[in-house]
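Can't paste images in this forum, so I'm doing it all in text. The chain is below; anyone willing to post the predicted structure tokens underneath?
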Amino acid sequence: MNSYGQKRAYVFQFANTTVKYLLILFYEGLEMVTEEEVLEEMKQVSDPEIGMDVVNLGLVYEVKIDNDRVYIKMTMTAPTCPVTPWILSEAQRVVENLEGVEAADVELVWEPPWNPELMSDEAKEALNMM
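Text version of the structure:
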């Protein structure tokens, strides 16, 4: 686990009244999560029909990080994949559990179409495709 700074919230008071809508968050020493950390965490999400994680299957096309938000573009092995909703929600869940991530947006894309060439050598070897 990384050593991130602590989030600290400060509420400013004016004339002894707390202005509820004025809440400013300061991130002291907070480091952004890296693409490598996101991809490593996403290896926890496997396609249950294939028995291989989404990263090594080549289903993750793009990871963008904007402060504490992570944007992910990923696909499925087939448009008819019955576990698509589960895989997408698991991907979002594991990334949002990373320290330093406030929210993860996972977008399902179909272009370019997935093909076995996108798989890592590790996945190809595990699935006897080499």
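The domain at 33-126 is CATH 3.30.300.130 (GMP Synthetase; Chain A, domain 3). Helices lie at 35-42, 84-96, 121-126.
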